[in-house]
Amino acid sequence: MIGISKLYCGTVEPSDPLRYGRLSGSLPSHLLQFSKDKRPVVVWNVTRQCNLRCVHCYSQSDANLPRGELTTEEGLSLI
């Protein structure tokens, strides 16, 4: 999965060598920095219900509400 911070900030993150299988030594040091005005985006998966079926997604999500999952109302109250 491509990190939202990578797309949003346009920078390479320190974890990219591990995530994308590149050696850290091959990345120029000026690419391993964060923007001063943009911060990383945190994604917290609190449910396995999803109807998107993205090819790149690591989650085995389903559009049906699995037993014990949050309802829409519970999810909205979490936010």
Structure commentary:
The protein is mainly alpha-helical and 79 residues long. It has 2 domains: 1-43, no CATH class; 45-79, no CATH class. The protein is 23% helix and 0% strand. The chain is built from 3 helices and no strands.
- How would you classify the helix and strand content by structural class? mainly alpha
Average pLDDT taken over every residue: 69
Which spans have pLDDT < 50 for at least 5 consecutive residues? none
Number of beta-strand segments: 0
Can you count the helices? 3
Report the β-strand fraction as a percent range. under 5%
Cα shape: elongated
Q: What is the element layout, followed by pairings?
A:
Blueprint: H1 4-9, H2 16-20, H3 72-78
Overview features:
79 residues; 23% helix; 0% strand; elongated
Compact description:
The protein contains 3 helices and no strands.
